[in-house]
Amino acid sequence: MLKSLTAAMLGTGIDPQHGGESLVDFEWRHRVLVIFPGDHPDEAKRQADRLLAETAGLRERDLIVLEVGRGDVKVLFGPHYDLNPHAIRYDLDVADGDFALLLVGMDGAVKLRANQVVPVSTIFELIDQRPARKTSG
């Protein structure tokens, strides 16, 4: 379960200075690929470029691609939402300066966590072997 959902259920806040939604809002609707550039913007750009070259595959797999900076969230692919970068970073337990790529499944669980650029084929293969993907096509 995502930490922000647990915090909301317990009545504790993530960051009262910042509004916006967390990844909880995507559960059972979308898979989410989250890129954290950290102190490595070149790696983040390389990962984003590789993903965005495969938009048909992203769309087919109900993927949203986000880039979470220190103070903002950019939707690189998919519908736009008002997202809270602090809640997402908290949910996914990613330190501020680290480069990270995370795949969050429709159930809200992290399916992939990497600290280097990952080939798109690896991400798609991981999704395609999931039971939810096999039944939904």
UniProtKB/TrEMBL annotation:
The keyword Signal applies. The keyword Signal applies. It holds the Pfam family DUF4174. It comes from the Bacteria. Keywords: Signal. Residues 23-134 form the DUF4174 domain. This is DUF4174 domain-containing protein. It comes from Rhizobium giardinii.
